[in-house]
Amino acid sequence: MMSFWDFSNAVYMAPGVANECLQLQDEFDVDVNVLLFCAYAAVIAGVRLSEQNLHDADSHIADLRRGVIAPLRACRRAMKVGIAALSSGDRDRAEQLRSQVKAIEIAAEQIEQERLAAWLAANTHMERGELPGALDDNLAALFAPLERKNRVVPVPAALVRAALAQAK
């Protein structure tokens, strides 16, 4: 079975997916790894996730997201703004530092994905689902809390296409 990390990289690199993921992250505070997890669970594991399943999975990673990933992301984004004001010589060195922060952020996201994959493997009682319905249902479960707050979340069509392309 394809690992969650390999699946995520294949899906994320597909045309349009990164932009969709970042839009959902920035506008709706969606954790991109949880979004990709919804796709992985449906496409690779054949699992239909409920809102409660997603809540449980998210609580398994929330401390890592809050304590490590979010601060690293904030640092990297702040550096982008600060670097623009530097002289060209300093800018190059600072950009190298920013790249190192990004690499650490990605390593932390890989740990988050490992936690999600371990949670999925340990929770074998979940409902099985066929494609594409399970993927649609998983995304609906993820977005339901936002939609209850009258926030209309756009369907990540490029992500859906790329994820379904990984189905064997």
TrEMBL record:
It comes from the Bacteria. It holds the Pfam family DUF2390. NCBIfam families: TIGR02444 family protein (TIGR02444). This is TIGR02444 family protein. It comes from Undibacter mobilis. The lineage of its organism: Bacteria, Pseudomonadati, Pseudomonadota, Alphaproteobacteria, Hyphomicrobiales.
